[in-house]
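re the bet — no i am not wrong, look at it urself. input seq straight from the record:
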Amino acid sequence: MDRRQMSVAVVFWVLAGPMLAAQSPRTLQSEPEEFEAKLGYQTGTVTLEGGMATIRVPESFRFIGPQGSRRLLTEGWGNPPGAAEGVLGMLIPSQASPLTREGWGIAITYDDHGYVDDGDTAGMDYGKLLKQMQESTVATNKRRKELGFEPVTLVGWAESPSYDPASHKMYWAKDLMFGTAGDHTLNYSIRILGRRGVLVLNAISSMDQLPTIRREAEAVLSAVDFNEGHRYTDYLPGKDKAATYGLAGLIVGATAAKAGFFKLLLVGILAFKKLLVVGVALLIAAIKRLFGKKPEEQVPANAAP
């Protein structure tokens, strides 16, 4: 498995859960207004790095590229430096600054594991998939407990999975709870299938933002498309690489389990509110910190195995 495959997010493995940054948000080296002005906001139509896809940025959003995303994730939201690896860009709601408690964002990564056959969509039992994932968290939480972290609970679907076979786009949302916290966490996931892989869009926030994110997700779904030559319908059987999983694998993360690695969510804590950002890259270094760390190394609070 090459580094690129390791650095893009399909979906986090059996709800391994967010890895909270141990520290508070990093003190900005400049005033918030100055910092935000340097993120490089874009509007209109933008093309993702490599020319694989185009985003017609909705009026309610602004786009920032890889460099601005890296700066926001690390300097603005206090995530570890590896948090932005593999991120092609972010969509930031225009009605609120990302540096405020109300701010949130959708990060975009790309999984190049191959063409995902959507033939299993008709027979999928989302209730059964949910039960499987809930059972899987039991084993995950045993490992979390060994590491001294709070358990993560998959409460249920905040939005049941939905797939459009015409556009080859899928979305779902999960209701998560960490420890005995009263506030639940929303994980809203969008997947856009392409010829050689999947565009991954993830937004994570508090559950009270579900109505807002649900509404905005509709605009995002229609705004992002693969370009000609990269589209799902451009797939050449027998010539192009095919993924070893179907739509169910995108949801439950079976491919991550089979490959023997874990997908992590990196989290920024903003003001007094946990602003949970997007599922992004798995890093080899992250696994070393969680499973093979040296005695002097520190594991971030609430890190997931």
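see?? Confidence is low (pLDDT under 50) at residues 1-27, 254-305. told u. also The chain has one domain: 3-291. so pay up
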